[in-house]
Amino acid sequence: xxxxxxxxxxxxxxxxxxxxxxxxxxxxxxxxxxxxxxxxxxxxxxxxxxxxxxxxxxxxxxxxxxxxxxxxxxxxxxxxxxxxxxxxxxxxxxxxxxxxxxxxxxxxxxxxxxxxxxxxxxxxxxxxxxxxxxxxxxxxxxxxxxxxxxxxxxxxxxxxxxxxxxxxxxxxxxxxxxxxxxxxxxxxxxxxxxxxxxxxxxxxxxxxxxxxxxxxxxxxxxxxxxxxxxxxxxxxxxxxxxxxxxxxxxxxxxxxxxxxxxxxxxxxxxxxxxxxxxxxxxxxxxxxxxxxxxxxxxxxxxxxxxxxxxxxxxxxxxxxxxxxxxxxxxxxxxxxxxxxxxxxxxxxxxxxxxxxxxxxxxxxxxxxxxxxxxxxxxxxxxxxxxxxxxxxxxxxxxxxxxxxxxxxxxxxxxxxxxxxxxxxxxxxxxxxxxxxxxxxxxxxxxxxxxxxxxxxxxxxxxxxxxxxxxxxxxxxxxxxxxxxxxxxxxxxxxxxxxxxxxxxxxxxxxxxxxxxxxxxxxxxxxxxxxxxxxxxxxxxxxxxxxxxx
Length: 549
Hints:
It is built from eleven helices and 16 strands. It has helices at 14-17, 35-50, 93-105, 138-160, 182-203, 207-218, 265-269, 332-384, 388-399, 443-448, 503-527; strands spanning 57-62, 70-73, 110-118, 121-130, 226-232, 239-241, 257-258, 274-277, 303-310, 316-324, 407-413, 419-423, 436-438, 455-462, 471-483, 486-496. The strands form three sheets. Strands 7-6-5-10-9-8 form a six-stranded antiparallel beta sheet. Strands 13-12-11-16-15-14 form a six-stranded antiparallel beta sheet. The longest helix has 53 residues, at 332-384.
């Protein structure tokens, strides 16, 4: 016998899995969706469902981000004041059965209430009811759950773009049918979007703020959970994320660098300037969003739209990406709209890139002017200072004028292949008297063993000297110390506060290590244990020749 609310059982039978719940499509013009089109779509949905699940009532509710249910239709249900539970973030079976119970108590013989899921939360509720008793069972419930799954993307989209309008006199929310025409609203939204974009481009002072203001400007017409602006390097092998860059030169924070394995424009965009990915989890071009985003490591971006950004003369400038945690959230119209947004963003992004290139050139010119003099003084210090401890201290002071570090230390390998002694410039004790440490499994060890040309890391820690416990960033750079192509140690530089290391700094740090290397090698050789000598040297004399008598 059929029941009204069948309990969840094992998986569906083979014939049940073949039920194709194809929901009619509803396209939105930005956020200004047409109410008439919405009602027509709901009627088409009712007709489609009626072939498998005959019903006298089809109710649809939406859960915008404030989580209070909004009735989409039919409007007559508003008079019944049917209370829908709030998702947290899902709706459980008990909550849905309670709604079914209320509907049956109102006079309907059969009722099924299902949640509409998308992106890890309930975005709506669908209620189907029939005046006759015993009309619904497990097949109907399975069919409706499949239909609710296909309803998820469009309901999620309406939920993200929902704006509650209220009567100016009473303050009561207006019924859905009293809203204005969709196309007129869409035209107003596009005009407002352009104004908001202009303000965002003008007010942004950092790349991260530019990304944030851009995201806020397009949120209502292009809802998203993550946004990213990426600019390529000269060879387009790596890209740099602007969403996390606050101060300093671009490319100065290696944690913002995205490798080709994490983001490959050639694989994703191919020959197009627009990108549309319905579900990144199953897309053949994966990974689509393989780099960090604002949602953290636990959240997965499923839907993605993107656009190439081009500069003056069509030059390659960068990429603008939007992502959503639910599948099939975006359409081709969204990618087209994002292309229009990208055209407005490109000039501002080009100014950011050009300003960075100018700063880099100026800083490089300044360093190039001063580096030879500093390296000359360093060489003079090493050549004229008798004590290595004093020489290394003076060299560190001289190097600090051209490299942004606050701490320096050396790691030198003595006897064991897996142990080093670590000391700072100015160390007076002999190396053989210093404690040794093992470096196996560390980035320092990989540099020592020749696996890495250098190593870089960034971290944040609480400043113990600050009364408010301010979190300070720290950057560490490790370069090899080598002689004759053989690496026997490393030099580590640590920068604190807002400073970090650029590519030019890494190159200069390696030059400094190469200048110091012969002197550190002499220091290392003097600390090595004396090898036991062989037999004493004996003078070999030739025997006297026999003289004739």
